[in-house]
Amino acid sequence: MQFYCQRRRRRATLAAVLDETSAIRTVDETLARKLRGFGPLGVLAFVVIAALGPVLEPLGTVLVLAWTRASQTSLREIGFVRPKSWWRTAILGIVFGCALKFVLKAVAMPLLGADPINRTYHYLVGNSAGAVVMAFYVLIASFNEETVFRGFVFERLGTLLGPNRSAKIATVLLSSAWFAAVHYLDQGVAGVEQAAMTGLAFGTIFAVTRQIWISIVAHAAYDLMAIGIIYWNIESTMAHLVFN
Description:
The protein is mostly helical. It is built from nine helices and no strands. Helix 2 runs antiparallel to helix 3, helix 4 packs across helix 8 and helix 7 packs antiparallel against helix 8.
């Protein structure tokens, strides 16, 4: 009789644990569905990440990863796919990022009448310590900004607008506009113009490949080249290579 009662208690305990686990799973699935959707909670998550992520680095990456976990979204959906070749991805990213910086500095920005000197970061001229610190910062910023603006924003807008070509173009334009806007406070109009063009470039790469690593590498290469140009005080020289 005692053995029978013990078995019943164990079964009851096991049933209670299973019921609790099932309830937790149901709550998790409900939360995930709301975060993936565009109801109040989904919109709130999008606004918070899009607003705070780019300006509080690397908080954006932390928020995006927390969102993917809570919403049960695969990292693949935000572009974190293992490339076929890390070396090829690194080389292509570095070449593209450096080439883009050269074209913008020597051709695009002079055509727009921009000051050849980046006044915000001119203090880096000959400043080795400052340049090293800034180099570490831009590596973090490149990863963070691509995770937010390309990975997260593209997934969200892609889910909202759909997978067709018009939706992809709209996603590239909208993400680039927001990416440009957040550069106004520290770099002014010229920073907005430059960020708009880089956003279009990196956004197009991501829209075509749906892989984030080449965009991260290209972004980092672009920013590191910008630091080098300022550090060696050749901004004005580069800005007048094509248009004197």
